[in-house]
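pipeline stage [seq->struct] | target=Cobyrinate a,c-diamide synthase | organism=Chloroherpeton thalassium | residues=451
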Amino acid sequence: MQLPRFLIASPTSNSGKTTLALALIRAMSKRGLAVQPFKCGPDYLDTYLQSIAAASSHKDLPGINLDTFMSSKSHVMSLFHHYAAKADAVVVEGVMGLFDGAKKSEGSSAEIANLLGLPIVLVVNAKGVAYSVAPLLYGFKNFDPDLNFAGVIFNHVNTESHYQFLKDACADVGIEALGYVPHHEAIEIKERHLGLNISTDYDQDGIIEHMAEHVQRTVNLDRIMQLCTGEIESEVQINYPSAKQPAMKIAIAKDEAFNFIYHQNLEVLKKYGELVYFSPLFDTELPEADMLYIAGGYPELYLSRLSQNKSMQQQIAAFCEHGGLVYAECGGLMYLGKTIIDPEGARHPMCGFLDLETSMEHAKLTLGYRKVKLHSELFPAELRGHEFHYSHLSGTEQLENIADVRGARDQEVPTKVYRKNNTIASYVHLYWGEEHSFLDFLFHQLLQAEK
């Protein structure tokens, strides 16, 4: 099956990959194409925005993560071909710089482009540079001869004369210039807040529409699609093993405060029972369930509303106290604690089940891939995940830690996986789209507790 498929990459972060990816996804969607978006790496926010950009009246096309650190290469290939075969076009957004991986280029956008045979559209920030971009392009083109560069889009180019210098550089290097994106203050401001404000009152769709209109004026989408059309395998099935436990009802927190969830995690959860959704922000009653999944998100942006919803806090705390199975990640961990302290030092009471406090004061970024080995002979496998937060914990000394957590290079990290009753909580966002047996382990805890 022939269709346009390409990977958008850049030499560095903050070059404009996300803007270009969202704009091109929307532009192709407006042509009547069902566009399947993918994101290299562990980012859960970009896939959320991609799903909005690709919104189609006739197909459900969620953004899908492709990550060769958190899963095997064979799993990544299966995901890609399974979802791409349902689409008319495919856009893959890279992560960081093209060759940046967990270790050298392992897990990088370049590795995924090679693995999947994808042409690369390179996005280069041309602010403050003209013909000197030539050696940069030459290096990227020749560093790995197996990569296929379809061409280059230049960002922050305000005049045709500036673009002519850049086209001269492309011609001398042998890479096609595919257009440029002029600086646009309105888009830059909106872009800055696009990922931070996912309230239903915030018009993400309108912002993406504006991006698409702006980019299409000076980027040659027809030429991109022509250069990048190639073969996609017919639909590949993803084989999920049958659950070993009786069917359960699994309640998942999902609203503006809690929404960082890998799509494949949900697909696996469906094999274990019925999924129902609830909002810690707006709902006053917790749905009847055998398990709660409270993922990460932006609870720190909604502290007053979360704190005021005492009914939901009390019901979740009671569920935890009575031995209900709960799995909480990052923002979910924060929410289950006693208090979240905002950047100004104000304290906001939360569920109070876990004897810890979270503070956003003196915020410092903690970021990186994680390897998790549980202290359990029942689960010898190593889990993979990702950690990203600005908050820090205190008062955790009395909580049981049930795992060893290390970084991508096996370095020690202070991150813990806490357990109290049948609640397991951590800063790590685990990917279990491939390592399904982790859920068997979780449900085993619940069944053992019921005996």
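stage status: PASS
auto-comment: Residues 2-231 form a domain with the Rossmann fold fold (CATH 3.40.50.300). The radius of gyration is 23 Å.
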